[in-house]
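Below is a filled-in request sheet from our internal design queue. Each sheet records the structural input a requester submitted and the sequence that came back. We keep these sheets so that new team members can see what a complete request looks like end to end.

REQUESTER: design group, bay 2
PRIORITY: normal
MODE: inverse folding
CHAIN LENGTH: 182
BACKBONE (tokenized):
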């Protein structure tokens, strides 16, 4: 088994693993999302008139669509697709009408899931000098032989890893560091 995976498993089996993890990822459920009153009035109007196009168009303007469906992201990116995909719109609206306005409102105002909050938390923890080293910009990182953590954008870190570390994947990196010359 990979050395780092072995270390991770050993660490996870310690009693304080979740407490330690919470120091890095203090995920706390947020309050309900605010819904724009003007958009919601348009949603109510379209719902009552059974105006499928108006209902979908306005719900797509909200931060959270009330049902999970693979095609919703496409419709958000290309609103003109609403008029071209009648069967999909009818299917989505059928589910929405079954839900009723109250449930639609509840779903649209649900708080952001805690697993969607963790992205920036690791970097915030690193920048607090949590490993005893303040992250440094790429030029300084390249020009020092000392222990260091790279403070760069996702693109900068990926580019650095490909050019200097022969990283071959397209998956982003959370962290690049040098410790003890490695």
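RETURNED SEQUENCE:
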């Amino acid at each position: 088994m990979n050395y780092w995976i072995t270390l991770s498993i050993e660490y996870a089996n310690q009693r304080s693993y979740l407490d330690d993890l919470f120091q890095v990822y203090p995920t706390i459920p947020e309050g309900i999302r605010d819904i724009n009153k003007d958009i919601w009035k348009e949603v109510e109007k379209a719902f009552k008139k059974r105006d499928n196009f108006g209902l979908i168009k306005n719900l797509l303007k909200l931060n959270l669509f009330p049902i999970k469906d693979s095609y919703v992201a496409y419709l958000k990116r290309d609103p003109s697709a609403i008029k071209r995909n009648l069967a999909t719109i009818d299917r989505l609206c059928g589910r929405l009408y079954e839900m009723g306005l109250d449930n639609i409102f509840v779903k649209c105002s649900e708080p952001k899931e805690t697993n969607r909050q963790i992205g920036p938390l690791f970097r915030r923890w690193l920048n607090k000098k949590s490993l005893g080293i303040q992250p440094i910009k790429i030029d300084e990182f390249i020009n020092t032989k000392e222990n260091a953590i790279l403070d760069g954008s996702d693109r900068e870190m990926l580019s650095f890893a490909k050019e200097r570390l022969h990283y071959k994947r397209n998956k982003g990196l959370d962290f690049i560091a040098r410790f003890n010359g490695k």
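SHEET NOTES:
- The longest strand covers residues 148-149.
- Residues 57 and 80 are 10 Å apart (CA to CA).
FILED BY: M.R.
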